[in-house]
Design goal:
The complex is a heterodimer of chains A (about 325) and B (about 280). Chain A has about 325 residues and is of the alpha+beta class. Chain A is built from nine helices and ten strands. Chain A is about 40% helix and about 15% strand. In chain A, a hairpin with a 2-residue loop joins strand 3 and strand 4. In chain A, helix 2 packs across helix 4, helix 3 packs across helix 4 and helix 5 packs antiparallel against helix 9. Chain B is an alpha+beta fold and about 280 residues long. Classes of the chains: A alpha+beta (about 325), B alpha+beta (about 280).
């Protein structure tokens, strides 16, 4: 894991995009042996374009592009065309075409002769190790939590539902003053935090009714007050319309928190990624930031939709 | 684990530098335990600096990762996502789920749905039973048909000429597995019946039944693995009911439920099973 924290910069706003093109510090001067094509002369120079590929650094970049192009297939999408991939990746069509050629040569993608579009090849089945467990929700979300934290500068957390509670299971706490704490294992009734609202709003009306029935009166403010069910329904409608939850907590230091659904296959929920901070700091930058957050979470959701929600997780026993 | 074998670029558009990065990736995928850069370089007979650069590129893209923050590497999240993405192209991967969960819950066994991929079987669906504590069942497992109980069930249901084709394929491409094929495989009674096997030393009972398409061709297998002691006579019946449900789905929309690779001749599909042969059942 790389270090986290720090303030937001205009560049960080496009982190979703730039991370795709980020390059490691490249160790220079490595000369491959055994005929490894590590030198300039061995690189096949394509006709007319991108001759800068000769250096080691350019080769590493080209290789990173190939891996990035393959990663786009890690979703429920059936096939992809060159133009579509170029747009998604911010690469030229020629770069994409060459990346796909290498991937096709390896059998990781195959081109449909009729549609000219590319699909995953069965050789990706070889890239597994059966001594290593499958990645869980935390592993899927971790890189995105990190990017969201860099984007917002605020605390970001991962929340799942357990019975009638929202439980924090992972996250990164900001180093800025006056913020939400990120406490693994902390729980809240579903009707109070933004994360809980998402978990409720994305379930069926019947489920919400029975939640209200089980937990009435709906206590808020640490038991100092109650939330009328009609007010909860209003918040649920707003959350559904917006596609995410926004909650402002009026306090000595007013706080703004957001909750975004993390989707599983079959329109079920894995959980929620939340981010929050002081309203005065987080609020003003939010309008400009939301489209970028949405883009980042769409990328994550393409991955998490490949997995079913844990059928045990929501069981009320 | 052998030395690195360079794949030959087939055209000028193939990035030859990337080819050896993929070789490093496949090597990492095959390693039985996480290894450091020096050890990987030694086994591949490559300079550490070269391996380091390949590992860095792969790590940055999520294809490999450090094990417990140590300077030792293992396969990362991205290959598992690609694996899932591939499985999601089998319509039965998602749509068989309720059937498999139900069966796992009532039987307490681990249920697997296998589909044919050429002469291999690939586990495209599964549900863990409550009593399952020692299985290593993973989605995306690939086995040569005769090396696995569920695969053997599919194999025994194939017509004689296809069985000969299979034997030829194994001799040509998986010679090290050919000897076990010479011993023959158990033939069950009439078609569609549940086949049972017990494997030692872990004493697991594997019950499986072939799945056929609307033309009667064997396209997959439904398997239930559990403790050998806990034989439940009604299991066979439930297994067959679930099989019937899946076959009815397939018959109603054959195109939809066809394997996305069904159009490729079986002999053309060849996989390196170095890592995936860890799959026991």
């Amino acid at each position: 894991m790389r270090s986290s924290g720090g303030t937001i910069s205009p560049l960080a706003m496009s982190a979703a995009h730039s991370a795709l093109q980020s390059q490691p510090g490249v160790a220079s001067g490595a000369i491959g042996d055994k005929g490894m094509p590590m030198t300039e002369g061995d690189e096949p120079v394509p006709q007319g374009i991108d001759r800068a590929q000769g250096s080691d650094r350019a080769q590493v970049k080209a290789t990173a592009r190939i891996l990035t192009a393959l990663s786009v297939f890690a979703s429920e999408v059936e096939d992809l065309g060159v133009t579509e991939l170029a747009q998604r990746l911010g690469m030229t069509k020629n770069m994409v075409y060459r990346a796909l050629s290498t991937l096709a040569d390896q059998g990781y993608v195959v081109r449909d002769a009729t549609s000219q579009r590319y699909q995953l090849g069965y050789r990706v089945l070889e890239l597994q190790n059966h001594n290593r467990p499958e990645p869980d929700l935390r592993a899927l979300c971790a890189p995105f939590i990190q990017r969201l934290q860099e984007m917002t500068g605020e605390t970001v957390s991962l929340i799942i539902r357990a019975l009638d509670y929202a439980v924090m299971i992972d996250g990164i706490e900001t180093r800025l003053p006056g913020t939400y704490r990120m406490v693994i294992g902390s729980i809240h009734p579903l009707h109070t935090p933004a994360s809980g609202l998402v978990l409720l709003a994305m379930s069926s009306d019947d489920d919400i009714q029975s939640y209200i029935a089980r937990n009435s009166p709906l206590q808020i403010n640490g038991g100092q007050g109650t939330l009328p069910p009609k007010d909860l329904w209003k918040r649920i409608r707003e959350t559904r319309e917006r596609g995410h939850a926004q909650v402002i907590r009026e306090d000595a230091l007013p706080m703004l928190s957001l909750g975004f659904p993390i989707w599983a296959s079959g329109n079920q929920l894995h959980g929620v990624i939340g981010s929050g901070g002081p309203l005065a700091r987080f609020g003003p930058q939010l309008p400009a930031m939301l489209p970028h957050i949405a883009q980042l979470l769409e990328e994550l959701n393409q991955r998490t939709r490949l997995y079913p929600a844990d059928p045990q997780q929501w069981a009320i026993s | 684990m052998g030395d690195l074998v360079m794949a030959k670029p087939t055209g000028s558009t193939v990035n030859s530098s990337a080819l050896y990065v993929f070789e490093v990736l496949r090597f990492v995928a095959d390693m039985p335990e996480p290894l450091g850069v020096t050890e990987i370089g030694r086994r591949l007979s490559l300079p550490v600096s070269t391996v380091f650069r390949a590992l860095t590129t792969l790590e940055d893209a999520g294809y490999i990762q450090r094990f417990q923050n140590a300077p030792r590497f293992e396969i990362g999240t991205m290959p598992y996502l690609l694996n899932r993405a591939l499985l999601s192209r089998f319509a039965l991967h998602g749509e068989s789920r309720p059937v498999l969960y139900e069966l796992a819950q009532t039987s307490e066994d681990t249920i697997s749905l296998w589909m044919r991929l050429g002469w291999y079987g690939v586990r495209i669906g599964g549900a863990f039973g409550r009593r399952d504590t020692h299985h290593h069942a993973r989605l995306g497992d690939v086995v040569l048909l005769h090396t696995h109980p569920a695969g053997r069930t599919m194999l025994t249901m194939l017509p004689d000429n296809e069985q000969s084709d299979y034997a030829q394929f194994v001799a040509n491409h998986h010679a090290d597995s050919a000897a076990s094929l010479d011993n023959g495989w158990p033939h069950p009674g009439g078609g569609g019946e549940v086949r049972r096997e017990r494997t030692e030393p872990d004493s697991v009972r594997s019950s499986s039944v072939a799945i056929r398409d609307q033309n009667g061709a064997v396209v997959g297998c439904l398997a239930s693995d559990g403790a050998a002691g806990g034989d439940d006579p009604s299991l066979d019946q439930r297994l067959c009911q679930a099989r019937d449900t899946l076959e009815a789905l397939i018959a109603a929309a054959p195109e939809r439920y066809r394997s996305p690779f069904a159009h490729i001749p079986a002999d053309k599909i060849q996989l390196n099973l170095a890592s995936i042969s860890h799959a026991k059942r």
